[in-house]
């Protein structure tokens, strides 16, 4: 057998090795949010549910580190995120919510079905608040320190294995 | 029920793929000849097709209890995009992939009657093995029929960039092309197992290569045009990894298309053709892997999933590794084909193959080089257009010159007498080159050479018809002429638009006038506009270059589900080129960003692509017609 006939296999091995390496070391494509280090925009959001307080920027500068969670009853990943938020709340981290383009009756059903970890929920019927926070979708979660400064932005649902990252960010913001 | 029916069909099809494998390669006692394998292959194809139809049904009716539908569709979408949503996502597109694989196997089983029995059985076995791996991938790692409990109230929508007629046809076209090459792969494997590579094999392989190549050509051309008008950058090729992933199988298929002709006509290039057939489909799998694993940074933002990537990579390594090992073991036993001289049709086609292979290598290395470098040194870098243009461009032009020469040569041996006919095209090319040098100061030399080579090839591509009775010339020869002429047209478009494009980026108030190239563009107004699932700001531009006034309405669109902004360029096509306009962001003082391009000759790029595909279709049609008549005569 001529060695040249083995050349294709040798090339294949080389290429597959490089691809395996890449799969094992995924590229870092994280983009730092430009909102980090900036104060939250000034806002006052009406209560999203009767009987539950609304949210304003003053509430976010009350000296305590909080999570601000943009969510909606119509958002499927928010359902997946609900138990994770419950666990975070269980660790003693306060969470406030902003309900994006939602209706009170849908929201009440959502919270009854999937749990309510929120201290306050502000309504954002036109997504204005969401855009002002530099957020593009639901769910998104911001870590806001006691002075109302954004310290971390998490895009998409928080996965169970990311709870520790969030807790660390909260700890660092204290 | 619909989703369960689809899933059940997939499992059954996977079981049949196992059976197909056993019938083809199992112990001699089970191998019952071609009829059993054939029936199994047909049934397997029918079942996968059924599964695909079930998924399309779920999308057409927006069945939100199916997870995939809930995540990728929306009840307010136009029906065409609902249907196209079935393959506008990972799981659905992999199901489409497998469907094409299964149906291709079935068609091979039905139509290849005159082939050597052992080669045929082994090829169907190989096709079954390919299908089996991808069935496993679907069923274990990408189930498109997974249910969502409780069902979603509304779907999450489809990326608005993809809500375009382009998406409806572009991915399926490319997939048919990609996966059509699987048959060439399986036939090559079958021939190696049988130990016989001859012109019969080439004739069985040729329609598949030709068909797949036509679809790849169309898919790439359409994709390029889609990127051009939808992304609003005014460019038509970005050397993006995903574009390269479709270009690489095309390059391999183009080479294979020519070498398979040599094998069919002269029985030469045996080992080479078999190798190319394997490489072509391997490139399809590499392309699928690159796209589906998301490991290369690309404008095509596909979901990154290392697990799926690992699965696909394992399949790729298994299939390509097995095929190459088979090649290493068996290709030495293939007898050499008849010899040919340095000046002959064969030699020109070998030159064509070498150049195409080198270009393929250049694209491949350029696409994966950042990854190799980072693996070895840890440095991050990217390879962009300057590398590809500078390295692949000149080779492509040399190849185009060879395209002018090759068809004028005889098989086996040639005195080169007919090459004298190239004198006139060469003179035209020289004239074009001088004019380009004088008339266009600056600009790349490569593009000026490109114009000259395009002129030469445009004329020379018709020379094979000289001194022939045109009505008795076979359709496949016409196909070659049209495809080669199409290549000249496309090269002229690429070179011409890159030399002559004029661009203006300006901020203008309604009422202002902007001029670009020969056009005067009047900015009339900006008004709101709305569609089924979007709202937009729409500018009204009145453009003229002497004659009548054309109205262009570029839009900045805002889609609600999911919330995304896109630009819709407005394009005015004239005989000599395109005026391309994009509406940008408003400034605080009431002015609007306007981007205007005048792109002379740019339409020739896609016209050329369409001509190349048309040439392929003529050749395919001509050969099919001939063999049908032959069959009827006997």
Q: Whole-number average pLDDT of chain B?
A: 88
How many helix segments of chain A? 5
Weakly predicted, low-confidence segments of chain B: none
State the share of residues found in helices of chain A, binned by percent: 25-40%
User: Rg of chain B from C-alpha positions?
Assistant: 26 Å
Shape category of chain A: elongated
The gross shape of chain B turns out to be globular
Report helical residue fraction of chain B: 55-70%
The proportion of strand residues of chain A reads: 15-25%
With strands numbered from the N-terminus, the spatial order across the biggest sheet of chain A is: 5-4-3-6-7
Q: Could you give the order of the helices and strands of chain B?
A: HHHHHHHHHHHHHHHHEEEEEEEEEEH
Supply the helix-strand structural class of chain A. Answer: alpha/beta
Task: Please describe the biggest sheet of chain A, giving its number of strands, its sense, and whether it closes into a barrel.
Answer: 5 strands, mixed
Question: What is this structure, in a nutshell?
Answer:
With 174 residues, chain A is α/β, with parallel strands linked by helices. Helix content of chain A is 34%, strand content 18%. The mean pLDDT of chain B is 88.
Features:
heterodimer; A: 174 residues; alpha/beta; five-stranded mixed sheet; two-stranded antiparallel sheet; 7 strands; elongated; B: 634 residues; alpha+beta; six-stranded antiparallel sheet; four-stranded antiparallel sheet; 17 helices; 10 strands; 11% strand
């Amino acid at each position: 057998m001529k060695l040249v006939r083995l050349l294709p296999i040798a090339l294949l091995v080389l290429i597959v090795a490089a691809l395996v390496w890449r799969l094992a070391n995924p590229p870092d494509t994280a983009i730092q949010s430009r909102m980090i280090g900036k104060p939250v925009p000034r806002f006052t959001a009406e209560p999203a549910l009767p009987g539950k307080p609304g949210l304003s920027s003053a509430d976010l500068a009350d000296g305590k580190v909080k999570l601000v969670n943009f969510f909606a009853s119509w958002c499927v990943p928010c359902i997946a995120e609900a138990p994770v938020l419950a666990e975070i709340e269980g660790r003693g981290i306060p969470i406030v919510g902003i309900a994006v383009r939602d209706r009170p009756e849908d929201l009440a059903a959502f919270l009854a079905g999937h749990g309510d970890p929120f201290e306050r929920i502000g309504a954002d019927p036109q997504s204005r608040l969401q855009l002002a926070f530099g957020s593009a979708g639901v769910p998104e979660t911001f870590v806001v320190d006691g002075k109302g400064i954004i310290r971390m932005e998490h895009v998409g649902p928080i996965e169970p294995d990311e709870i520790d990252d969030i807790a660390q960010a909260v700890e660092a913001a204290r | 029920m619909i989703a369960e029916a689809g899933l059940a069909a997939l499992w059954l099809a996977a079981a049949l793929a196992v059976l197909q494998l056993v019938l083809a390669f199992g112990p001699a006692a089970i191998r019952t000849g071609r009829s059993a394998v054939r029936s199994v292959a047909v049934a397997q194809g029918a079942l996968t097709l059924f599964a695909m139809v079930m998924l399309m049904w779920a999308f057409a009716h927006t069945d939100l209890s199916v997870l995939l539908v809930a995540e990728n569709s929306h009840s307010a979408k136009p029906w065409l995009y609902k249907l196209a949503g079935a393959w506008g996502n990972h799981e659905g597109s992999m199901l489409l992939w497998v469907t094409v694989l299964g149906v291709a196997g079935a068609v091979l089983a039905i139509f290849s009657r005159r082939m050597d029995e052992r080669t045929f059985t082994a090829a169907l076995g190989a096709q079954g093995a390919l299908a089996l791996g991808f069935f496993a991938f679907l069923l274990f790692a990408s189930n498109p029929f997974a249910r969502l409990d409780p069902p979603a109230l509304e779907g999450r929508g489809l990326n608005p960039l993809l809500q375009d007629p382009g998406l409806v046809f572009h991915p399926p076209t490319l997939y048919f092309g990609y996966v059509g090459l699987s048959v060439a792969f399986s036939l090559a494997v079958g021939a190696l197992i049988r130990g016989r590579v001859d012109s019969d094999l080439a004739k069985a392989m040729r329609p598949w290569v030709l068909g797949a190549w036509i679809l790849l050509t169309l898919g790439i051309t359409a994709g390029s045009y889609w990127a051009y008008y939808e992304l609003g950058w005014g460019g038509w090729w970005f050397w993006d990894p995903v574009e390269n992933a479709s270009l690489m199988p095309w390059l391999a298929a183009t080479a294979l298309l020519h070498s398979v002709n040599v094998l069919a006509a002269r029985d030469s290039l045996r080992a080479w053709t078999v190798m190319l057939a394997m490489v072509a489909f391997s490139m399809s799998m590499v392309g699928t892997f690159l796209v589906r694993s998301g490991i290369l940074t690309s404008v095509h933002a596909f979901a990154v999933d290392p697990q799926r990537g690992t699965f696909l990579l394992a399949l790729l390594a298994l299939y390509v590794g097995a095929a190459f090992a088979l090649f290493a073991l068996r290709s030495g036993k293939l007898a050499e084909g008849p010899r040919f001289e340095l000046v002959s049709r064969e030699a020109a086609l070998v030159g064509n193959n070498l150049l195409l292979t080198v270009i393929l290598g250049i694209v491949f290395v350029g696409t994966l080089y950042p990854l190799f470098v980072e693996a070895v040194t840890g440095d991050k870098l990217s390879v962009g257009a300057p590398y590809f243009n500078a390295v692949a461009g000149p080779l492509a032009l040399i190849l185009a010159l060879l395209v002018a020469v090759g068809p004028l040569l005889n098989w086996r041996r040639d005195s080169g007498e007919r090459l004298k006919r190239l004198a006139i095209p060469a003179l035209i090319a020289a004239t074009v080159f001088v004019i380009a040098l004088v008339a266009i100061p600056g600009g790349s030399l490569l593009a000026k050479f490109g114009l000259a080579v395009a002129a030469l090839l445009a004329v020379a591509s018709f020379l094979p018809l000289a001194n022939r009775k045109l009505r008795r010339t076979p359709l496949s020869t016409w196909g070659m002429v049209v495809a080669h002429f199409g290549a000249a047209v496309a090269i002229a478009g690429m070179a011409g638009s890159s030399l002559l494009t004029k661009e203006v980026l300006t901020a203008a108030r309604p009422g202002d006038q902007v001029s670009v190239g020969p056009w005067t563009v009047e900015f009339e107004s900006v008004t709101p506009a709305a569609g089924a699932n979007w709202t937009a700001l729409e500018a009204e531009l009145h453009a003229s270059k002497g004659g009548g006034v054309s109205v262009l309405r570029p839009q900045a669109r805002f889609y609600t589900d999911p919330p995304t902004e896109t630009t819709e360029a407005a394009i005015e096509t004239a005989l000599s080129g395109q005026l391309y306009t994009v509406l940008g962001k408003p400034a605080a003082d009431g002015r609007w960003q306007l981007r205007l391009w005048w792109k002379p000759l740019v339409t020739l790029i896609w016209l050329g692509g369409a001509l190349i595909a048309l040439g392929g279709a003529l050749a395919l049609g001509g050969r099919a017609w001939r063999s049908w008549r032959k069959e009827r005569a006997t």
